[in-house]
């Protein structure tokens, strides 16, 4: 049991400054926020620390996971407009708001249940969803890093267009995955995107839809310069088109350092930050009228990469064509007609003579007008080869994702959709997956002898799953130090199926020195992660390799 000399979070020893040497949590706080859990409160297997954020939907705390022995973020469903003063740790609902509270709490639970099924570097992992104290909780991965606004302040300058395009790649893929799971974020902004030390962009700030639109139920939270116009209208719930607006505004912010506002792309200054086609993508993704806006992330990315052009509504195009004719003098129309007839005749002659015929790889169904084409086989081709093929890019657009592959070299196409031989219209998007090469993850060196916090951070950065098991401390590996792992250093790890066991020394008192020259057998075999062990194989007791 913890006492005055041990940490209230992990029961580790307290050092100078009243800070735990093991988990790093301070034992005291000056924080006094009404309605939040007290510092050091135990909820399930988590010990609550300081409040990170508090909004109209929930309160997020730093917390310590006593089972996995690591820092996490604990999110408590706590709509301040519906709750009364707590009774101890229990949430008290205001009279008459019980039904609405329960309905919104179900939305909260459903949201994080769905998020737990999404595997992406750009979203925090959901460790656990549970109910306690009359409300719901979600235990989330703690993401180290700075918000995008903090990152730009530290950089002292915006990102270049190419830098931002690379930084946002995983966010674009995440939004596509969120749409597949029917999740509209509604709060994409410079405060909810975190840039990790490895320069990955992670989207945080997920919430129920009521928080992301002006309403009378809860205290909503929107972000000026990033939230879409429809979110400021009463009872206009955000959709995927709102996220497209926000991510486009955020991209503009990343490359200019300025928050987006209507008309921001009309000035000459924006030309030095983005090429013309990228400015067009941002412009049409941030249109006030939803009917005129690019309403899905695929089309936005294609336009941002200059692989598609923005099409205005049909009514606009027809009116423009009619207005264009008004500039033509009627006396020139006969000459134009003769010219068109001559060109059609020339094309027909060339087609009959076999000249100008499209390549057999993607032959068209008409020799005069390229209307339909046959999808070529792209598997095994390099992406650079596809980009250099002018005719291929004239007939098709491409949506590119990446994945690991043991069969294909980096840059080669793993799969395509539609399949080879499919007849499609010109301009059809072909979805291709590019190989990133083999996924070579191995148990890293230098784990034994390091602190558990550092080891967990290294494994988290590598994407290796792990579990922690205590072993008896020794003089070489004192309390809180990693004694080794169940797999030798250099062992291949499958990040999807394998779990690395970390052996960490507990606080069992060391035995008194014995005058006997005969050494006593060690109760704990040497874990394989020990760089000085005579063997790289481990013989841990069965109960320690669970």
Description:
With about 550 residues, the protein is of the alpha+beta class. It is about 25% helix and about 20% strand. The strands form 8 sheets. It has a 6-stranded antiparallel sheet with strand order 3-4-5-6-10-9, with helices on one face. The chain is globular, with a radius of gyration of 30 Å.
By secondary-structure content and strand pairing, the structural class works out as alpha+beta
Distance between the termini: 25 Å
Shape: globular
Return the average pLDDT rounded to an integer.
80
**Assembly state (oligomeric):** single chain
What is the tally of helical segments? 11
Strand content: 15-25%
The total of beta strands comes to: 23
Report the major sheet: 6 strands, antiparallel
Spatial extent as radius of gyration: 30 Å
- Proportion of helical residues: 10-25%
Strand order of the largest sheet: 3-4-5-6-10-9
Residue stretches low in confidence (pLDDT < 50, at least 5 long) are 312-332, 354-368, 520-526, 529-546
